[in-house]
Design brief:
Distance between the termini: 88 Å
Radius of gyration: 40 Å
Number of helices: 20
Low-confidence stretches: none
Largest sheet: 7 strands, mixed
Number of strands: 39
Helix content: 25-40%
Strand content: 25-35%
Shape: elongated
């Protein structure tokens, strides 16, 4: 927030240099990003009077002037401005003068005639039209008032001022104003606070006869106040007002609009002025927008509303976005004769959401987003009416419309002086605490160690004893905190149990050739919808963000899969022919809450492959992870809607899904812009970690040799292989060490509707070397189980 030091000094004396002031304010908790003169490059420009003006003999547009700048002899200056003439007062840059942009004026000749300086336009000396009326770049700036010849022009334009750029923290919205900073300055400088006494001269009448106000959303608009000005006299604002606005980075428009901007900067309360004749029915209604309503704002842009925005409306349609920007239809013009001043307090969250969703950022919205106290609304409104009186800009109608159904009660706390001193680590006497708080306009009463403190109405950040302690400490002096050396021991860091298990998974996947992907926890609900999950699936009910940056980051992810699929699609588009990626992160379950009411956070692992990959490859990755964790599993048919119906499976442990693996459904793949076949796996990490063995699957070293036998079994195409393998494993008992499928064949040789599946069986006995008879018996048993239970026969 930029503030003129001249303006600030009206309310609090600053008996130090800008640099010293900056240091003191920073040390008392009010951030200052810097101080800078308004016109640091402007030097040597004075008031001059054109005594004579004749045409240049060698030019059709230049003029030769003699100019009095208060020195012994007038200066001869060649000027090309079309509006130069005898008798006018103008800014004169003498020899050696410095202008914005690093320009230094030197003695020279123009078309053979000596020139001893330069007559200046407004832009040439950094004075825009709104700061001092002129013709801009079209000619010289001509003074409308009498000034001493030779006087420096900087005080005339208010360019001898210093701008202070304050860095106001989010918890101190009261300091987003000149008054707020002045209050802090007076305490920091130990000087008197001199805020203006507000007195409004009213002409009689009844404001309710001129306008009507209804607030339909009291939660979003806790207070709305309005006064009416009639016989409005639109005109130019005085120089001092234009200068203060210019220092703050705002341009002057007209006296009525400038008053509202001035009040916002001075008090921290944004205001709006309505041309009352343009308000249909002279009726202001504060309500939410209707779905599809449209509004054209003061900047000429049209917005389509979604029904969540808080609006200022007249009897027929919206006239402004509450707390953000007014509408084009009711703006103040030279024809305005009656004005309604609005000063209100709006819900900060509502303003923030609306401003961000519409992409609008204004000085007004920035203040409402941080919080504007409803208790001080009338101070700002009456101050605006006082300025109408002072500028003779109109006549103030008696009375006020003030809708304030639930007045905010002042915050009162009972605190312990001794406890605050211990908390601060500084020996601060109770009397000193009381004195500091009174200077900060707190109401204080003390009884021994106990102190009862009531916060002023403009302080919305005071909630507990720690806040009072902070106020005391920052003005008692942070430098009083004693220096202490670091004590204690720094333990060696390490991973917790979850981190350790995740690190093991990362190592295993990296060893299998995978790269880790990391995506945002904020995603779009549309990304989840692309998975075509059932309506009752909890993943379709994400936790929505109250103030999202945009629709694509408007909810917390309930699955990692959309993020991984987008990453895979990006790799495919960029020409990576073979990809292996995984993501290990947190998902958020909004349907199951913690004791604190927060969504449950669970880890999840998703794996993706394409290129040199197939269904058995992705399944093999998950099976390898299970084996390394010592988890027994079975394979069964799954029905995930986003996977290919014939190329997907569950990895189960005792009937509970550990993971689902498979090829992406073509329709889903198209939605994510995936070309070619892509294979994914989603692993239920909470169950996986709960079943993991500390050392994985540990077996004693075998003392006797193993024997391998390969079997090719012909079975129906529809026969699932997993149950067959499990039946063989159970039937052959402990001597069947392992069974693996290594080939699938289809062809006319084995008949239409059949498939040939090849298995590798590993037999081993723990206490002896298997004989040929034992091996044959086990093999025949496997064939018998296959034939009797699954109709599978040995391939000829």
């Amino acid at each position: 927030m930029k503030v003129s030091m001249k303006w600030l000094k009206q309310y609090a004396d600053i008996p130090v240099t800008p640099a010293e002031y900056e240091s003191r304010m920073v040390m008392t908790g009010t951030g200052v990003e810097g101080t800078e003169p308004i016109a640091p490059e402007l030097e040597g420009v004075v008031v001059g009077k054109v005594l004579t003006c004749r045409d240049h003999e060698n030019s059709d547009h230049l003029h030769v002037c003699t100019v009095d700048v208060g020195e012994a002899e007038p200066l001869q200056i060649v000027c090309g401005a079309p509006n130069v003439k005898e008798g006018i007062l103008v800014p004169v840059a003498k020899i050696g003068a410095k202008l914005p942009g690093g320009i230094v004026i030197k003695k020279g000749k123009l078309r053979g005639v000596e020139s001893q300086g330069m007559l200046c336009s407004g832009p040439e000396i950094g004075v825009p039209v709104e700061l001092y009326p002129s013709v801009g770049t079209a000619g010289l700036l001509i003074f409308h008032e009498d000034y001493p010849l030779g006087a420096d022009v900087k005080p005339i334009f208010g360019l001898d001022d210093t701008v202070i750029d304050f860095e106001i923290l989010a918890n101190r919205p009261d300091c987003l104003s000149v008054w707020g900073v002045a209050r802090e300055t007076a305490v920091a400088m130990n000087t008197e606070l001199k805020l203006p006494k507000i007195e409004v001269k009213e002409i009689g009448g009844d404001v309710n006869e001129f306008a009507k106000v209804d607030v339909l959303e009291n939660e979003l608009c806790p207070r709305y106040a309005a006064k009416v000005i009639k016989n409005v006299r639109i005109g130019e604002s005085p120089a001092w007002l234009r200068q203060y606005l210019h220092a703050a980075g705002m341009r002057s428009i007209n006296n009525m609009v400038d008053i509202t901007n001035f009040i916002m900067l001075e008090t921290g309360h944004p205001m709006h002025a309505f041309d009352l004749d343009k308000v249909r029915g002279r009726h202001i209604i504060v309500r939410k927008a209707a779905q599809g309503e449209k509004l054209t704002t003061l900047d000429g842009k049209e917005y389509s509303l979604n029904g969540t925005e808080l609006m200022i409306c007249d009897a027929e349609r919206p006239t402004g976005l509450a707390g953000i920007m007014g509408g084009e239809e009711s703006e103040i013009t030279e024809a305005t004769r009656e004005v309604l001043f609005e000063c209100a307090s709006f819900d900060r969250a509502s303003i923030r959401v609306t401003a961000r969703s519409l992409g609008i950022r204004t000085e007004s919205s920035g203040r409402f987003e941080r919080g504007v106290s409803p208790a001080t609304v009338m101070d700002a409104l009456n101050r605006a009416c006082q300025m109408v009186n002072e500028l003779d800009a109109g006549d103030v109608i008696s009375g006020v419309i003030d809708i304030y159904p639930k007045p905010v009660e002042p915050v009162t706390l009972t605190v312990s002086c001794a406890r605050m001193a211990r908390r601060a680590g500084v020996d601060i006497a109770p009397e000193e605490m009381e004195n500091i708080l009174r200077k900060l306009l707190f109401t204080v009463s003390r009884n021994g160690d106990e102190m009862t403190v009531t916060a002023p109405a403009f302080r919305q950040d005071i909630e507990q004893e720690a806040d009072i302690c902070e106020e005391v400490l920052r003005y008692a002096g942070y430098e009083r905190i004693p220096i202490t050396h670091l004590r204690g021991e720094t333990p060696m860091g390490g991973l917790n149990e979850l981190g350790r298990r995740e690190a093991i998974l990362r190592g295993q996947l990296t060893g299998m050739g995978f790269y880790e992907s990391m995506t945002f926890s904020f995603i779009s609900p549309k990304s989840i919808a692309l998975l075509n999950l059932p309506e009752n699936d909890p993943r379709n009910q994400p936790l929505m963000i109250r103030n999202p940056l945009g629709e694509d980051t408007s909810c917390m992810r309930t699955t990692l899969l959309p993020g991984l699929l987008k990453t895979l699609a990006s790799n495919i588009k960029n020409g990576n022919e073979d990809g292996r990626l995984y993501e290990l992160g947190t998902i958020y379950d909004a349907q199951n809450r913690t004791e604190e009411g927060l969504p449950t956070e669970n880890p999840e692992l998703v794996i993706g492959m394409y290129g040199n990959a197939d269904f058995y490859a992705i399944r093999g990755v998950v099976e390898a992870l299970c084996k390394q964790a010592g988890i027994s599993y079975t394979v069964a048919v799954s029905d995930a809607p986003y996977l290919h119906p014939g190329r997907q499976a569950y990895i189960l442990h005792e009937g509970n899904p550990l993971a689902v693996v498979g090829e992406m459904h073509p329709d889903t793949a198209n939605k994510f812009d995936l070309s070619g076949r892509v294979y994914v796996a989603c692993v239920n990490l909470p169950l996986f970690f709960s079943l993991s063995q500390p050392l994985g699957e540990v077996k004693p070293i075998a003392r006797f040799p193993a024997v391998n036998r390969d079997l090719a079994l012909v079975m129906k195409e529809t026969q699932q292989v997993g149950p067959l393998m499990e039946a063989i494993r159970t039937g052959c008992g402990a001597m069947l060490e392992d069974i693996r499928m290594f080939d699938v064949f289809r062809g006319i040789q084995i008949g239409i509707g059949n498939k040939s599946v090849a298995f590798s069986l590993t037999f081993r006995a723990a206490d002896h070397t298997l004989t040929e008879e034992e091996i044959t018996r086990l093999t025949e048993k496997a064939l018998k189980i296959s034939g009797e239970q699954f109709g599978a026969v040995l391939r000829a």
